[in-house]
Design brief:
mainly alpha; 2 domains; 9 helices; Serine Threonine Protein Phosphatase 5, Tetratricopeptide repeat; CpoB
Length: 267
Amino acid sequence: MGLSRLSSRLKYSACVLALLAGPAAHAGLFDDEEARKAILDLRARIQTSDDAQRLRSEQLAKQLAELQSEQLGTLRRSLLELNTQNEGLRAELAKLRGLNEQLARDVAELQRKQTDLSQGLDERLRKMEPQKVVLDGKEVLVEPDEKRLYEAAVASVRSGDFVEAAGSLSAFQRRFPASAFADSVRFWLGNAYYGKRDYKDAVTVFRAFVNAAPEHPRAPEALLAMANCQLELKDAKTARRTLDELIKAYPKSEAAQAGKERLASLK
C-alpha cells in the first residue's frame, strides 16, 4: 500500500513538471519505464531494509531466548543445588536432634546414677558415723561396728551360748579398749565365764568391773555373782567377805537382800 502511493505521487510530480517546463523540459523527464524502475529499486531497498530488520529482530529474539534458556538452566541448577543442600541440612539437623536426645538421656541416666551413688554414700557414711545409744541410763556415742558387736555378744550371753559370748566379749575388749561399753562388757564377760563354769576368771572379771565402776547400776549384781563363784570354788570365807561388802556398799539393792539370805545360810 505505501509503495503504490509513492508511485502515484511520483507520476503526478512528473506530469506537473512536464506541463510547467514546456516541450523542452518534457524531453528531460523520466518516462514511465524509468519511474517504474525507480519505484522497483526503492521497493527493493525498502524490502532489503525490512528483511535486515526482521533478520536482526530474529537474531535478537534468538539471543534473548538463548539467554533466557541459559539463565533458566542456571536458575534450575542453583535451585537443585540449594534443594540438595537443604536436604543435607535437614538430615544433619535430624542427626543432631537424635544426638541431643541421646545426650539428654545419657545426662539423665548419669544424674540418676550420681543421685543413687550419693544416697548410697550418705547411707554408708551414716552407718559409719558415731551413734547415740542409751546405756545403763546414760546417753553415749559409739561406733556402728562397736554397737553391733556389743549387741551380738550380749545376745549370745542371754541365749546361753556362753562360749561364743566369752570369745566375742574378749575380742571386743581388745578392739575397743576405751569403749563406752567397756564397763558393761566386763559385767557380761563375767556372766559368760560364770555360765561356762569358769569361776576363777569370772571372779577376776567381776572384781575388775566393780573396782572400775562402783557406781554402775549392775555393780551389786556383780558382787553377788562373784560371791556365788567363790562358793562354787569352795571358798566360803572369801564369799562371806564379798557378801558383807555387797550389803554394806549397796544396802538398798535387791542384790543386797539376796546377799543377806545367802550370808545367813552360810552361818
